[in-house]
Amino acid sequence: MIKIRFILFTLLKIFHKKMLSHKLTTLSLLLLLFFLTQYLPLKMKVNKNNIPKNKRLLMKKFHEINIQSRIQTEKGTGCEMPKTNPFAKEIMKFIPPTPKITCAMKDWVTCIGSQCYVVNDILENMPNVECHYSDIMYVNDDEYFVEVPVILKGKERYTLRYSDHVKIYCTMDNRFPFSIWSPKWYGIKTGFREIGINVPPGREDSPNILVVAFDSVSHNQFLRRMPLAYNFLTKKLNATVLNSYNIVGDGTNAALFPILTGKTELELPDTRKGTSNNVKVNPSDFLFFKLREDGYHTAYFEDLPKIGTFQLRYNGFKYQPADHYLRAFFIEAYKMAPDCIYCIGATPKYDLMLNLTHQFAMAEGKRFGFTFISDITHDGDYLKTAEDEMVHLLKSFDDGGLLENTMLIVMADHGSRYERLRMTYQGKIEERLPFMAIVLPERFKRNRPSAEKSLRANTNVLTTPFDIHTTILDIVGLQHFRNDYKVHGSDLPRSMSLLEPIPASRSCAEADVMAHWCACLNWENVSRSDPAYNRAAYALATFINGLIAGNTKCIQRMLTSIEWVMHQSLPRPALEYANNGATVKSAVETYQVKIVMSPGSAVFEATMTFVRRLHRFLITEDDISRVSAYGDEPSCIMDTHPHLLKFCYCKYFHI
């Protein structure tokens, strides 16, 4: 073991030195890649999922080596996205009509700002109503408590001082408050307690930043489901829509980590569940913390705590990441009404989120708010139900003059990952191209007219979540926090401001986008008679079973069908560059595979590298997509091994 570790760190040292001097050939890189990811873990005789420190090191080096090997052929080749029709007949059959979400309850109490009070129509019928207000006090992402109640009567108002959230019980007859005959109401409300913020001298007028994000909404899906909102954004607010905005990894975390920290998960401390160190996510790495230090009021609103971005696979935040944070509120709301999927009392969750966004945005002081709406799009397509409220929100921003000094971003993390549309080729492309629209502040445009020109020019250039992070820092004047990391061999930084020109020649490799997630690479179908067809599929199936082999709660899967195998086709100039003008076979080749495995008819797509000299495929779990919903299949490891959710089928679930 000591010898192997010595070899590992010696190789990594050589790799780092050579990579800096750009002396490693593609084949040398991939041979090292094979040793690090395939041979070494076997020799260490441990499940790599239980050695988080070593695993993360290997995964990080895998990523770096893989990207550098592609830089040599992709550098400067640009990124031309496939042309897709959002309204094609074969696509629209997957887009069913959406019923409007309605909530049947009647709320007795409302909260506006820091004031909570009984609504007028209740007071008219029950002037002596008595309400018990109990603050919901956040401790950390896993813990909160409910304070002892404060009792108020009639028109008396409750002021939010210590928490934004309050649990309420009201009764008409205060003589017999718990009588089954007395009208009563239980509810939970949220508002905004007043918070004092110190603004550094000279930083009073920096622009506000407001982000409204939806889960699982592609560029095309936003056009299909929110045409009125799209038209208002582009025609009334003059928003710039990024047509080539490409994800950089799997799921929400791969979008929000780069936007909010400027880094990938692997570049931050290991905070995954099931690791030995049990480290929590540090809010000081996030924009919320940096902007609050600059005098901004901050808000982070997310509506599905069970699958929270930083809680499902991670240990949650060390402390509250923003001034206003809804996690404890939604956990308590679910406890109070577990069967109420889309509503909080009389209000749809999405409407509550948009209303809170409006209240926060229109308040005094500098503001940075990030609203992430999941409940209507994560497990189904109900985006259309929110269109009227979304248009109303945008109109209120316009009418209220908010956009004079506020940058508005309307976006999504990625396209649909599990809907029926995702099973199509266009669905695969749409997953990688989420919606992204940006409205610049009017004052900023007057002071820096070149910024809007550059933003418009970048509409069809490859852009990523890393660029959004740098753009936010640019517009608020905090460029010193930007991450200037460059992919080895690239002349461009990974993260570029959209307010400056981005070269049209920028490729996925230069933007640090792995081949699996790059929407603009060209692929050719591999014939079923080609030996690589079956070899690639069985290599993927074997790798997936290897990932779950060390977990006794998961059963091994079987390959039941091969949907397709594709081979990356490089442009002619890249081939000539790679082979010095000769037309010889490349030492390494990239394949994509789609297979179905039992039990559960699990559908997987993966990108893998074939090393000709080794006659082996190199695969990493980060380059595997599960495109069929797994539901409760992996429930036995949900809390202990969430990184295996897309692979595991629990033994007791199979019985």
Description:
The protein is an alpha+beta fold. Among the domains are: about 1-75; about 110-190; about 520-655, Nuclear Transport Factor 2, Chain: A. The protein has 19 helices and 23 strands. The protein has a 7-stranded mixed beta sheet with strand order 10-17-16-9-15-11-12, sandwiched between helices. Strands 18, 19, 20, 21, 22 and 23 form a 6-stranded antiparallel beta sheet that branches. A hairpin with a 2-residue loop joins strand 13 and strand 14 (about 345-350). The relative contact order is 0.13.
CATH topology of the domain at 522-655: Nuclear Transport Factor 2, Chain: A
Number of helices: 19
Mean pLDDT: 89
Q: How would you characterize the largest beta sheet?
A: 7 strands, mixed
CATH class of the domain at 522-655: Alpha Beta
Main β-sheet, spatial strand arrangement:
10-17-16-9-15-11-12
Notable traits:
655 residues; alpha+beta; Nuclear Transport Factor 2, Chain: A; seven-stranded mixed beta sheet; 19 helices; 23 strands; 19% strand
Short recap of the structure:
The protein is of the alpha+beta class. Among the domains are: 1-75; 109-190; 522-655, Nuclear Transport Factor 2, Chain: A.
Topology:
Layout: H1 2-21, H2 26-44, H3 52-74, H4 89-92, E1 109-112, E2 115-118, H5 120-125, E3 130-140, E4 143-146, E5 150-153, E6 158-159, E7 165-171, E8 184-190, E9 208-214, H6 219-225, H7 227-236, E10 240-241, H8 253-261, H9 287-293, E11 297-302, E12 324-325, H10 327-336, E13 343-344, E14 347-348, H11 349-362, E15 367-373, H12 387-399, E16 406-412, H13 425-432, E17 436-439, H14 442-447, H15 449-457, H16 465-476, E18 523-525, H17 531-548, E19 558-568, H18 572-578, E20 588-598, E21 602-611, E22 616-618, E23 624-626, H19 651-654
Parallel strand pairs: 9-15, 9-16, 11-12, 11-15
Antiparallel strand pairs: 1-2, 2-6, 3-4, 3-5, 3-7, 7-8, 10-17, 13-14, 16-17, 18-19, 19-20, 20-21, 21-22, 21-23
